[in-house]
Amino acid sequence: MPRFESLERGTRRARASSVRATPSRRGLARLAAALCAALPTIALAQVKIGLVLSLTGPAASLGIPARDTVALLPKQIGGQSVEYIVLDDASDTTQAVQDTKKLISENHVDAIIGSSITPNSLSMIDVVADGETPMISLASSAKIIEPVDAKRHWVFKTPQTDAMMASAIAAHASAHGVKTMAFIGQADALGETFYTEVAKFAQLHHIDMVASERFNRTDPSVTGQVLKILATHPDAVVVGAAGTPAALPPKTLRERGYKGLIYHNHGVGNNDFLRVCGADCNGTFLPASPVLVAAQLPTDHPAKRLALDYIARFEALRGAGSVSAFGSYTWDAGMLLGNAIPIALKQAAPGTPEFRRALRNALEATRGLADTNGVVNMSATDHLGLDQRARVMVEIRNGKWVYQPN
């Protein structure tokens, strides 16, 4: 630790000088000079950002683009160097908790980005609250940040909430004459919370929910669930799932001859999902991040310019057509921190509880920050800060994302 060693050497020299010269004004002046010379070194302590990402397991298609985006994040913010520490939670809640504890207790990070999925993000809340370390989740559920209680006081997120996306699905379905709707989702927090929102907005649009089924991320088949759904003859089916496992229900529905509308949640916004689902997903719909169709957006869309900039950076790193919404959520987390860190640095040095508190407060005070998904206006009761401009309706057509104007 050379920086702190220089402080110790300076202090020892100052002490020795004061002993030789007795407690005179000259000795005190030398001591003060030595300490002042060391203070800038302390102020330049490194900012540490930890990331808990699903790099292996069923949610890997969400975590990998997030990890790749880390290479694009700034290495210096507010004149301070920034270190990013990435850990793999293996799509597992227990591992996510262990990773979070390690980042706080051993790596002494100033903030955490992650996890990639809702169950893991929910499992991390107690840990970051106990460690008083701000966290920016990359997962969808509103339960991650709502209500902003004593624990969620420390938690923020960048993806659109399930409520925002469910309302878009219900509005689109109603406009297309849907009267009955079925749901099949993951048997976890994502599936449960998304179903709740879908059912709520379906009711507002006078759409009857006629079936609700669940499956596990690792299930090899959903034939039983699909047969139960088909027996209710729904006009539309909503799939509440994320990543490549979300391809199984629509593929099974198509194999069984279903001709109605199929909707996905925004957890499928990457090319790995398109690859796995293939032609079976053509003609299906999802509310999505503007990043997926940035080039197709109207010129006045608030996210278009920054989304195109991110896409150019990411594709320069990973190749044409490699971008996904999940990388953009990480980029936006970086933008939030890039805006908040300089504010926090005016109040405390990195690596201290005071800095983490100042950083949390600065995140919550974010106003009018444009990012790749919209415009962020946080508050004490809203730790997302996005409005309806942050979602667009997309159709999958010939294996491509196609923007659907309102």
Explain what you see.
This protein is an alpha/beta fold and 406 residues long. It is built from 13 helices and 15 strands. The chain has helices spanning 2-21, 25-43, 60-70, 93-105, 118-130, 162-175, 189-204, 223-230, 248-255, 271-277, 304-318, 325-345, 353-364; strands spanning 47-53, 76-77, 80-88, 111-114, 135-137, 155-157, 180-186, 208-215, 236-240, 261-264, 285-288, 369-371, 374-376, 392-397, 400-404. Strands 2-3-1-4-5-6 form a six-stranded mixed sheet, sandwiched between helices. It has a four-stranded parallel sheet with strand order 8-7-9-10, sandwiched between helices. A three-stranded antiparallel sheet has the order 11-14-15. The radius of gyration is 25 Å and the shape is globular. The termini are far apart.
Which helices and strands appear, and what pairs or packs with what?
Layout: H1 2-21, H2 25-43, E1 47-53, H3 60-70, E2 76-77, E3 80-88, H4 93-105, E4 111-114, H5 118-130, E5 135-137, E6 155-157, H6 162-175, E7 180-186, H7 189-204, E8 208-215, H8 223-230, E9 236-240, H9 248-255, E10 261-264, H10 271-277, E11 285-288, H11 304-318, H12 325-345, H13 353-364, E12 369-371, E13 374-376, E14 392-397, E15 400-404
Parallel strand pairs: 1-3, 1-4, 4-5, 5-6, 7-8, 7-9, 9-10
Antiparallel strand pairs: 2-3, 11-14, 12-13, 14-15
Helix pairs in contact: 1-2, 3-12, 4-5, 6-7, 12-13
Region (Disordered): 1-20
Keywords: Signal
Pfam families: Peripla_BP_6 (PF13458)
